[in-house]
Structure formats: structure tokens, C-alpha cells
Inverse folding.
């Protein structure tokens, strides 16, 4: 029997239907930067899966009961119980979102000149490491280099490269190892338990703290249950518990796998580190029992964590992503294989060989998807990861020219996904019509969000 979502839709929100002419004008007004499009000009929004999931009636009921006491509110204790049960970390702090968790934790862990090693740092994670004067170094496993291969855990860290650094002269400079589950910056691929255990052993041997960036802990756990020998008999909650138990602590945006509009958590074992985080949190985010979140957000997160670990939900979400992947591949567009859960990554470089890296094939495809069907998604290629000179000329392209189509949780039906695949099929029938782009303005910091481009 085909998996189906374990919920029905009770509240809906209308989506805008626009004409090509309106979209042409809107994209030109946005200087061809999708982040500058008003959402009322977007039909299917696949920009992110963060804070965009549909909340449940149970989440809204809990939110309505929220206790807004400044200190020690009922909502905080509910949040604590949900995270205590999952993580086993003795020190848990709510924070408003993942990047705040990164800032608070890293500023107690990392010193200027130190190195943070990761399978791949997410962009805010990298920024928070670099703002402290430390270096963020990615060590993705070699299997990720082949986008078409079916290796099940292409999100793993390269253990040999990790050990070589820990054994070598740079060991003194390594401030932390941070594993992102699932690996959002690396094709949304999962990390295996075997890889996490090996990281634990290396960190013990060389005395380095090991943290998780656990934004998609439930989806990673589900893919472990599905793909890793020896885990098929466990529930996703059991695997998630084992995952958190392996690390010294975590940062986790809860806008993804807690299916909440806002929220994040810091969890740590070390009491000294906890004290430092707490002082920083109280000074900059909020008191330790709300950390910058409204009580209703604490409630939505606590309830969302229960819902996201339901195997029926995860099975249906994985099936949706797999179905979407099949439609897109049949439409003639290659994706990073095997498909993960939270997003599909389109191989724009392969679809648009007539556009060189300095014409930004990923960005060109994302723009064309918007113009053709009002679908918004984002480039992960040379525009984002390449190196540029002062005149905005690309001097070093990214290894791949990808476009990420994130899939918000419980938000779109299979009919919406079929529509997006139709848009892609239309483009893939005649890819030569897709034009190149040129950067006309870009700030130094967080350039991706603030770029201005023109079509060539
Ligand atoms: N870590 C990972 C792996 C993420 O994917 C994100 C956010 C963050 C940290 C930061 O969390 O947004 O709550 O501050 N990712 C979103 C995305 C924005 O679209 O992938 P945040």
C-alpha cells in the first residue's frame, strides 16, 4: 500500500496565481534576486523548508494554552520535557532560531585562529564561526563528489581527512567538530550512525568536543532506519536518541523538524560550558526559560517534536520526496542522488551546458522556473559558493551548479509537486532558451541574499 499523510487538511491558505508578464516585471523589480520577490508574487514557494511547515491543530491548541510567565513557565517545562526525552543533555536552552544557538554556543567554544571541522557548515553556521575569527573547514566524504551515485550516506564526514588533521600539526587549533544532520549544504544527504560513532571515537582520542547541528534530526534518523544495516528494527525516536547521545551537545534550528514557525535549542553536557552559554543567552537573547521565544512558540515546538517522529509521517514525507524525484527525473532534469527528504537538488550544470559557470546556470534555471511557473527556489552553485573579484567577476567556480528545491513540511500536496515537475519538463524540452546572468552589485557580507543581477 502506498504511504499517505497521517493528517487531513482543515485550514488552507490561498496561493497567488500570476501571469508571465507579471512575473517578468516582478523579477526585474527584484533585480533577479528571488529573495527580493514579494511572496504574493510566488505560486509555489520552495525557497526553504524552514518555518514554512503547516502547523497542526494540536500545536495551535497547545499554543493557545501557553503560559507567558517570564521565569519557569509551564510552556518552558513542556519544551524541556520534549528535549530531555530526546537528547539526554542535562543543560537545555531555548533560543529564537538556529543561528542564535550557533552564536551563543560557538562564542563559548571557539577562539580566534581555531578551526571548526564539519561534513559541511550551513551558511549561517560558517558565518558564526568566521565572525569569531575562527576558520570553518568542510570535509565532505568523497562519495559526495559523484552526484549520480546511489551511496546511501553521502552526508558523512571524510573520516580519513578528519583523522589526518587531528593527528597532524593543526590538532592544537581544532576547536570543535560539528556534524550537520542531514547535510543541507551537501545535497541534503544523511549521515550514518557508523560515521557518527567514528567521529565520537576520534574526538575522544584527540580530546576535541563533538557537536551536532541537528536541524533535521528526525529525517536523518528516518533515513538511518531505512538505509543503515542494523537499524531497521528501531523507531526514528530511538535512533534520534542514540544520535544525540553520541555528541557532547547540539545546536538545532527547530523551524525544520519541530515543524514550528520559530524556535531553536542549545543542548550541552559540560556544566562549565552551560554556565557560559547561559550568561550569554540571558544577556543577548532572553532569560534561560524562554531564550527569546514567545511561550506559544515553546508549545508549538514541544508538540511538533512529538509529531515529527511519527513513523507514518516520516514514511509519507520520504515517499513524497521520492515521488517528486521520480517526476523531476522523468521530466529530463538530473538531481543529486539518492534523493534525501527535505529538498531536491537539481543539476543545472548538466541541464544547461550552454551556460558557463560565469553565466550562472543554477541561477538561470531558478529564474526560468519562476518565469515559467511562479516557482521560487534558490541557486547553490557558483553564484553562492564561487569566488569573485572586486568587479564581481567570477574567478573560481563552485564544484557543482545546483538549485535547491526545498519541500516545506505538510504544506504542498502531490498535485503541487506534479505542477513543479511540469514546469521543469517545459524548460527541459527547450533548455537553449534559458539565458545567462551577470552580477551587477553584491555586498561583501551575506552576498547571496543581497545580490543584484541582470539578464544577458
Ligand atoms: N543549520 C542548518 C543545517 C540549517 O539548514 C539552518 C537553516 C540553520 C542551521 C540556521 O537555522 O534558520 O533557524 O537560524 N536553514 C534554512 C534553509 C534557512 O533554508 O536551509 P535558522
Amino acid at each position: 500500500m502506498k504511504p499517505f499523510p497521517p493528517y487531513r487538511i482543515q485550514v488552507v491558505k490561498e496561493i497567488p496565481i500570476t501571469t508571465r508578464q507579471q512575473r517578468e516585471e516582478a523579477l526585474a523589480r527584484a533585480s533577479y534576486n528571488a529573495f527580493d520577490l514579494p511572496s504574493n508574487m510566488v505560486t509555489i514557494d520552495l525557497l526553504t523548508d524552514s518555518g514554512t511547515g503547516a502547523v497542526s491543530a494540536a500545536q495551535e491548541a497547545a499554543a493557545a494554552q501557553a503560559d507567558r510567565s517570564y521565569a519557569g513557565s509551564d510552556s518552558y517545562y513542556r519544551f524541556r520535557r520534549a528535549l530531555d526525552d530526546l537528547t539526554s543533555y542535562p543543560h537545555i536552552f531555548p533560543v529564537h532560531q538556529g543561528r542564535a544557538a550557533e552564536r551563543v554556543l560557538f562564542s563559548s567554544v571557539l577562539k580566534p585562529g581555531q578551526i571548526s571541522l564539519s561534513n559541511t557548515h550551513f551558511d549561517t553556521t560558517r558565518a558564526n564561526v568566521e565572525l569569531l575569527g575562527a576558520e570553518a573547514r568542510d570535509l565532505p566524504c568523497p562519495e559526495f563528489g559523484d552526484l549520480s551515485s546511489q551511496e546511501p550516506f553521502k552526508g558523512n564526514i571524510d573520516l580519513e581527512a578528519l583523522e589526518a588533521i587531528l593527528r597532524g600539526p593543526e590538532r592544537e587549533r581544532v576547536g570543535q567538530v560539528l556534524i550537520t544532520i542531514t547535510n543541507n549544504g551537501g545535497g541534503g544527504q544523511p549521515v550514518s550512525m557508523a560515521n557518527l560513532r567514528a567521529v565520537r571515537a576520534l574526538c575522544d582520542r584527540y580530546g576535541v568536543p563533538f557537536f551536532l547541528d541537528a536541524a533535521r534530526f528526525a529525517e536523518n534518523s528516518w533515513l538511518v532506519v531505512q538505509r543503515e544495516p542494523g537499524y531497521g528494527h528501531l523507531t526514528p525516536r530511538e535512533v534520534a536518541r542514540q544520535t544525540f547521545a553520541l555528541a557532547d551537545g547540539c545546536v538545532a534550528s527547530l523551524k525544520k523538524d519541530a515543524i514550528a514557525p520559530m524556535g531553536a535549542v542549545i543542548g550541552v553536557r559540560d556544566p562549565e560550558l552551560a554556565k557560559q552559554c547561559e550568561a550569554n543567552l540571558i544577556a543577548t537573547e532572553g532569560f534561560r526559560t524562554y531564550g527569546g521565544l514567545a511561550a506559544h512558540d515553546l508549545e508549538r515546538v514541544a508538540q511538533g517534536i512529538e509529531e515529527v517522529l511519527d513513523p507514518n509521517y516520516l514514511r509519507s514525507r520520504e515517499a513524497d520526496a521520492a515521488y517528486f524525484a521520480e517526476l523531476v527525473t522523468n521530466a529530463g532534469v538530473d538531481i543529486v542522488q539518492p534523493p534525501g527528504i527535505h529538498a531536491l537538488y537539481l543539476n543545472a550544470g548538466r541541464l544547461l551546458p550552454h551556460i558557463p559557470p560565469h553565466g550562472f546556470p543554477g541561477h538561470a534555471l531558478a529564474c526560468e522556473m519562476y518565469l515559467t511557473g511562479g516557482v521560487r527556489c534558490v541557486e547553490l552553485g557558483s553564484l553562492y559558493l564561487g569566488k569573485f573579484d572586486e568587479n564581481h567577476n567570477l574567478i573560481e567556480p563552485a564544484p557543482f551548479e545546483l538549485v535547491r528545491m526545498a519541500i516545506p513540511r505538510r504544506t504542498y500536496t502531490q498535485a503541487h509537486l506534479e505542477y513543479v515537475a511540469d514546469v521543469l519538463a517545459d524548460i527541459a524540452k527547450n533548455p537553449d532558451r534559458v539565458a545567462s546572468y551577470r552580477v551587477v552589485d553584491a555586498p561583501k557580507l551575506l552576498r547571496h541574499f543581497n545580490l543584484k543581477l541582470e539578464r544577458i
